[in-house]
Write a structure and sequence with these properties.
The chain contains 7 helices and 4 strands, in the order βααβααβααβα. By secondary structure, it is of the alpha+beta class. It binds adenosine-5'-triphosphate. Adenosine-5'-triphosphate binds next to helix 4 and strand 4. GO terms for molecular function: nucleoside diphosphate kinase activity. It is an enzyme of class 2 (transferase).
């Protein structure tokens, strides 16, 4: 598919990195098909990350993702899911390639600046979580 879903996470919005991150995403050839500023409740963050429920960091992840503003967006580009994961870099910024968004803007494996869907199926599910048909094109 040619779409993926992203969030600028609360660490990055709080540090004022949103503009620079969106700029890098657009310059890499992604177009924004939907976007919103919002804040998740703990319940909503828990539901979004339900797939990680059994992981030891789940509680920390839910706390963090509901701690501040996020920017959610649907992005379009050829080979969107894989190309976006290359653009953001490894989950742990210590292992991320030079020039990637996480290398530049992430502080730690938990507070890692951005989310990127890991499959076409999850990109569709995650986009539907945040956006109605009227909010995207
Ligand atoms: P994302 O799904 O956000 O794009 P990812 O696919 O690179 O991230 P996952 O392994 O799916 O990474 O983990 C989901 C999120 O959980 C990570 O982005 C990070 O915020 C958090 N996380 C992962 N591992 C840890 C950890 N060891 N400690 C704390 N938080 C973690």
């Amino acid at each position: 598919s040619n779409r993926t879903f992203t969030m600028v996470k609360p660490d990055a919005t709080g540090k004022g990195y949103t503009g620079a991150i969106l700029d890098q995403i657009i310059k890499a050839g992604f177009s924004i098909k939907a976007m919103k500023w919002t804040k998740l409740t703990k319940e909503q963050a828990g539901e979004f990350y339900a797939v990680h429920k059994e992981r030891p960091f789940y509680g920390e992840l839910v706390e963090f993702m509901s701690s501040g503003t996020i920017v959610a967006a649907i992005l379009e580009k050829e080979n969107a899911v894989a190309d976006f994961r290359t653009l953001i870099g490894a989950t742990n910024p210590a292992n991320a390639e030079e020039g990637t968004i996480r290398k530049k803007f992430a502080a730690s494996v938990g507070e890692n600046a951005v989310h990127g869907s890991d499959s076409d199926e999850n990109a569709a599910i995650e986009g539907d979580f945040f956006f109605s048909a009227l909010e995207r094109f």
